[in-house]
Specification:
mainly alpha, about 70% helix, flat
Length: about 120
């Protein structure tokens, strides 16, 4: 930042306050995201979050279909792990299958070219 005159001081302070407000907003958003990442839930909260009954949650945990942590007689669920579990159940679209096929072909083509080069 360049030096400023006494007359420019009010404008500099105004700019400084604007920057501080932006930084505060960013920090608040970051704190909210970090809380969500580390947030643990009990069975009732997990049931509400997944829109399933507690009995369904218990049966999925006992069949190792749903990620859970057990401490004593209590079950705890990580919000982050539950989000990943939900995303794993996503139905693939045609474009997903095309992208996977193209990736597979590229990788195998490179491996076959390496094999040919090594044999020469």
């Amino acid at each position: 930042m360049e030096p400023f005159t006494f007359e420019e001081l009010p404008m500099a302070v105004t700019k400084l306050f604007e920057r501080i407000k932006k930084i505060e907003k960013l920090l608040k958003a970051t704190i909210k995201v970090s809380r969500e990442k580390d947030d643990f839930m009990d069975i009732e909260e997990a049931a509400k979050y997944l829109r399933l009954s507690p009995a369904t949650i218990y049966s999925k945990v006992s069949r190792h279909e749903l990620p859970a942590n057990k401490q004593g007689k209590r079950l705890y669920f990580s919000r982050k792990e539950l989000k990943l579990w939900i995303l794993q159940g996503k139905a693939k679209s045609i474009s997903d299958y095309s992208a996977n096929a193209e990736k597979y072909l590229r990788e195998n083509k490179l491996e076959s070219l390496k094999g040919k080069a090594a044999s020469k």
